[in-house]
């Protein structure tokens, strides 16, 4: 299949392709998404195929008008209203009870649906012009780091999708925060740019699902299927190192004879005697979020066998960066 490359002014064209049952990679403020008409099961199937995505991993439905929510969800609790008022449009996905109109392929047979209203203007225009809510998982091959620019999308999906739009670099760089509102107490399933403390300020209590910090038992019944798969993984083996800058530098320097790369903070650089890629300043979690996936992809291009990543703290947006790092490392964590 030949993939059509679209410029950012071609939102009409993108919508036309989607309306005809095509799948199109589109920019959002978090990461690029691979979009299709939510109600077109054949098109949704194409997404799973192009990404190599397991069919038990449900998709997020994207809307560009709050009113579209009533078409999709059957219950709209007060806490959802509060979160929507504060954070939409933006990088927050809510899990709510679904209406039967949503095909079961979208929700992997679950009785809830994930909904998000992106703030990216191109995404909004494409959704509006398509005239339907759009499903859009991240526009990467399943398992690889999510795409934060057009080149990443093409690397993974060129030739497998109908079209892709170049909308520049994604502002956030990590996928949206996912919160489930299907139980009495809201539950954080995936951390993102909207932090637990941001959420607690608006709705009070929030449970952090254990999968945010730790490996899941693969046989266990999981609330968010996405959390059970190995994710964000470069081809190299990744080891996550929790240490001070000095100890981290000393450790990676001692491994100089290995074919390695240090995925480090800017502040570490002066102490390193090995090849490195910096993913931002130590205390700037938003910058780390923006640079992490690109850095993982760059590290892979260097064809090293091991990446020693310096772990960030888990304050604020740091929890989201840390969550992706432990998955990229396959939970291989070294504390020094
Ligand atoms: O920022 C984002 O959310 C991006 C952009 C493109 O919008 N999309 C994205 O989609 O990250 P995806 O498919 O890569 O991740 C969706 C996550 C998965 O972990 C999935 O398991 C979870 O949301 N999810 C979807 N529907 C769910 C549901 N009904 N219940 C629980 N988890 C759900
Ligand atoms: Mg994804």
Structure commentary:
It is built from eleven helices and 16 strands. The protein is of the alpha/beta class and 336 residues long. It has two domains: 4-212, DHBP synthase (Alpha-Beta Complex); 237-335, Rossmann fold, CATH 3.40.50.11030. A hairpin with a 6-residue loop joins strand 2 and strand 3 (33-37). Helix 1 (11-19) packs across helix 6 and helix 10 (285-301) runs parallel beside helix 11 (318-328). The protein starts with a strand and ends with a strand. 50% of the residues are buried.
What topology emerges from the helices and strands here?
Layout: E1 4-6, H1 11-19, E2 24-26, E3 33-37, H2 41-51, E4 60-62, H3 69-72, H4 78-87, E5 92-97, H5 104-107, E6 112-116, H6 121-130, E7 134-135, H7 150-157, E8 163-165, E9 177-180, E10 187-190, H8 196-203, E11 207-208, E12 237-242, H9 245-254, E13 260-264, E14 276-278, H10 285-301, E15 306-310, H11 318-328, E16 333-335
Helix pairs in contact: 1-6, 10-11
The structure holds threonylcarbamoyladenylate and magnesium ion.
Threonylcarbamoyladenylate binds next to strand 5, strand 6 and strand 10.
């Amino acid at each position: 299949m030949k993939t059509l490359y679209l410029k950012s002014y071609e939102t009409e064209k993108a919508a036309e392709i989607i309306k005809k049952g095509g799948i199109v990679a589109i920019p959002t403020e978090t990461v690029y998404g691979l979009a299709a008409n939510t109600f077109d099961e054949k098109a949704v199937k194409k997404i799973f195929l192009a990404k190599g995505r397991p069919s038990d991993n449900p998709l997020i439905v994207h809307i560009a008008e709050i009113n579209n929510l009533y078409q999709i969800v059957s219950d709209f609790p007060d806490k959802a209203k509060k979160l929507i008022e504060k954070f939409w449009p933006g990088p927050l996905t809510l899990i709510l009870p679904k209406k039967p109109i949503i095909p079961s392929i979208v929700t992997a047979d679950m009785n809830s649906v994930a909904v998000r209203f992106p703030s990216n203007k191109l995404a909004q225009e494409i959704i509006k012009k398509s005239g339907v809510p759009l499903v859009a998982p991240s526009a990467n091959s399943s398992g690889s780091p999510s795409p934060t620019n057009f080149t990443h999308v093409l690397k993974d999906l060129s030739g497998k999708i109908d079209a892709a739009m170049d909308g520049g670099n994604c502002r956030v760089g990590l996928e949206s925060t996912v919160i489930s509102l299907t139980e009495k107490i809201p539950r954080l399933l995936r951390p993102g740019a909207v932090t637990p403390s941001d959420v607690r300020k608006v709705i009070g209590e929030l449970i952090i699902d254990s999968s945010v910090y730790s490996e899941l038992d693969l046989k266990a019944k999981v609330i968010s299927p996405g959390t059970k798969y190995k994710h964000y993984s470069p081809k190299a083996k990744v080891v996550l190192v929790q240490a001070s800058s000095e100890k981290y530098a000393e450790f990676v320097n001692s491994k100089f004879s290995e074919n390695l790369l240090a995925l480090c903070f800017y502040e570490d650089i002066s102490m390193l005697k090995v090849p490195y890629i910096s993913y931002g300043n130590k205390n700037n979690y938003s910058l780390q979020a923006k640079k992490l996936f690109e850095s993982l992809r760059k590290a892979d291009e260097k064809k090293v066998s091991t990446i020693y990543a310096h772990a960030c703290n888990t304050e604020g947006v740091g929890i989201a960066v840390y969550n992706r790092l432990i998955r990229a490392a396959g939970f291989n964590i070294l504390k020094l």
